[in-house]
Amino acid sequence: TQRIFSGIQPSGHLTLGNYLGALKRFVERQDDGIETVYCLVDMHAITVWQAPETLRQQTREAAAAFMAAGIDPARSILFNQSQVPAHAELAWLLNCVARLGWMNRMTQFKDKAGKNSENVSLGLYAYPALMAADILAYHATHIPVGEDQKQHVELTRDIAAKFNHDYGVDFFPLPEPVIEGPATRVMSLRDGSKKMSKSDPSDASRINLTDDADTIAQKFRKARTDAEPLPGSAEGLKDRPEARNLVNIYAALSGETQDQVLSQFEGKGFGDFKPALADVAVSVLGPISTRMGEYLADPAEIDRILGEGAGKAEAISAPIVAKTREIMGMILSR
Ligand code: TYM
């Protein structure tokens, strides 16, 4: 049987990259007739410092963003990672399956640790094994993610395959990364060679789902571009990463192809294109941020919904982790 699982870290405001690359696609998958399980991964978030009250607030905000974007807690399981013990428990078991050499190849760790890797948390290093636990605790088969998470899903496959091989079982299905749609890698508005990220120190580098219309317009106005007018087709954007990114964002928001967008703006400069882009963005994001505000007005209700989701998530994951312990030779005391 198939099961979709994915997660987002509540380590800041969710961005337009998270929306187009992940959340919007999570919503679309709800209609596939396959079970969908979506997780706010607060235990991943704490691999770098999070002030406690901020983390709690950001986790509720992320839950509100999921629901405002169209995740229906009656059709999807929506929950918070730390409320379901299977994640931490299975992560330890998988830490003992994953190889150091595999972890050392993770590019996201290398990027995040930078030159100062002696002083990052052990959790940041082990993070991909926790992600493997998230996925494998549900026997998930399809993992919708943006481009940057591909390597982590591949590592999950390696861990699952090694477990199955070492213990001589056919227990964990090998999950498939599902990286599709027009916006698998939305780039920073300040630098066309970096991805748009919640944790970029520059707020001007990203659109947050919480930004109001004026802020969105201003950030696009200030977005870095070249000085050339727009070409007539996507071919002409080849060596223009910033221009390509903005056209791509427009296309992803409006549901058109890049060529369709360019046929409307051929020969126009960014002075014309950027306000039009802001309008499309506001028309899509405005209603989402309004609904987010409505959900956030009642944090107790968000906590109730997450609690219910955690109950459903636990019902699936606890037996899978118990079986994992049994396969590994542990005594099942309870
Ligand atoms: P996170 O929180 O960094 O990002 C959440 C999702 O958004 C996608 N994404 C983007 N897509 C397109 N353009 C961008 N600029 C962009 N930035 C982020 C990410 O690819 C991701 O799909 N480790 C994961 C969270 C996680 C997870 C999991 C995902 C934990 N456990 C299990 C899947 C399955 C992360 O840090 O995502």
TrEMBL record:
The terms describing its cellular component in GO are:
cytosol
Principal localisation: cytoplasm
- GO molecular function (one): tryptophan-tRNA ligase activity
Q: Is this entry keyworded Repeat? A: no
Task: From the UniProt record, list the reaction(s) this protein catalyses.
Answer: tRNA(Trp) + L-tryptophan + ATP = L-tryptophyl-tRNA(Trp) + AMP + diphosphate + H(+)
Q: Where in the cell is it found?
A: Cytoplasm
Key words, A-Z: Aminoacyl-tRNA synthetase, ATP-binding, Cytoplasm, Ligase, Nucleotide-binding, Protein biosynthesis
Give the residue ranges of motif 'KMSKS' region. 195-199
Supply the PROSITE patterns for this chain. AA_TRNA_LIGASE_I (PS00178)
Give GO BP annotations, semicolon-separated.
tryptophanyl-tRNA aminoacylation
Locate the residues binding L-tryptophan: D134
Q: Where does ATP bind?
A: Q9, P10, S11, G17, N18, G146, E147, D148, V186, K195, M196, S197, K198, S199
The record ties this protein, via CDD domains, to: TrpRS_core
| Top EC class of this enzyme | ligase
EC numbers listed for it are 6.1.1.2
Tagged with keyword Cytoplasm: yes
Q: Write down a Pfam family by its short name.
A: tRNA-synt_1b
* Intervals of motif 'HIGH' region: 10-18
Per the entry, what this protein does is: Catalyzes the attachment of tryptophan to tRNA(Trp).
HAMAP family given in the database record: Trp_tRNA_synth_B (MF_00140_B)
The UniProt family comment states: Belongs to the class-I aminoacyl-tRNA synthetase family.
Q: How does it assemble?
A: Homodimer.
Q: What is this protein called?
A: Tryptophan--tRNA ligase
